[in-house]
Amino acid sequence: MAENVTIARPYAEAVFRLARDAKALAAWSERLKALYLAAQNPDMAEVFSNPSLSSEQRVQVTLAVVGEEKNAEFANFVRALAENERLAVLPQIYELYEQLKSTEEGVKEAVIHSAFPLDDGQLKQLVAHLESHFKSKLTARVEVDPELIGGIKAVVGDEVLDASVRGKLDVMATALKS
């Protein structure tokens, strides 16, 4: 897996620079997401690795599946991947591109550990509160952790905001031991 990331990084950085210079970060994000989703399909994985197909045939099938036959830059990107037998690293290219895009836009990822599942309204309100606390735009990923008993623990980069019952109990236990 680490090898795939190493292979994918130059492609992700190149497409990111292309998208940034063209002021088309969102458009390229959507294109790469379509490729990412296509690459998750077992039939497409078979197309990517089928030795009886030429690289041009792989390109044509891929472009037809994602519906981007008309975009020359995108077609050239897919062609470069196919000719260098790198279509299999599309998921890593997409993930690396999204990281670069988030950094460029000043968006950080928040991992929210919650004792219970959060509905959309709760998540939206919580993210708004966390954005003001961390003074940054956030994208949130929720992980349910029943061991927290109640509340949440938010991790943004190397910062942690622990508002869980488990965290408060741990603080109390430490205070009582001192």
Automatic annotation (TrEMBL):
It comes from the Bacteria. It is found in: Cell membrane; Membrane. It is a peripheral membrane protein. GO terms for molecular function: proton-transporting ATP synthase activity, rotational mechanism. Signal peptide: none annotated. The keyword Cell membrane applies. Keywords: ATP synthesis, Cell membrane, CF(1), Hydrogen ion transport, Ion transport, Membrane, Transport. Its main location: membrane. One of its GO terms (cellular component) is proton-transporting ATP synthase complex. The keyword Protein transport does not apply. NCBIfam families: ATP_synt_delta, PRK05758.2-2. Belongs to the ATPase delta chain family. PANTHER family: ATP SYNTHASE DELTA CHAIN. This protein is part of the stalk that links CF(0) to CF(1). It either transmits conformational changes from CF(0) to CF(1) or is implicated in proton conduction. F(1)F(0) ATP synthase produces ATP from ADP in the presence of a proton or sodium gradient. F-type ATPases consist of two structural domains, F(1) containing the extramembraneous catalytic core and F(0) containing the membrane proton channel, linked together by a central stalk and a peripheral stalk. During catalysis, ATP synthesis in the catalytic domain of F(1) is coupled via a rotary mechanism of the central stalk subunits to proton translocation. This is ATP synthase subunit delta. It comes from Oryzomicrobium terrae.
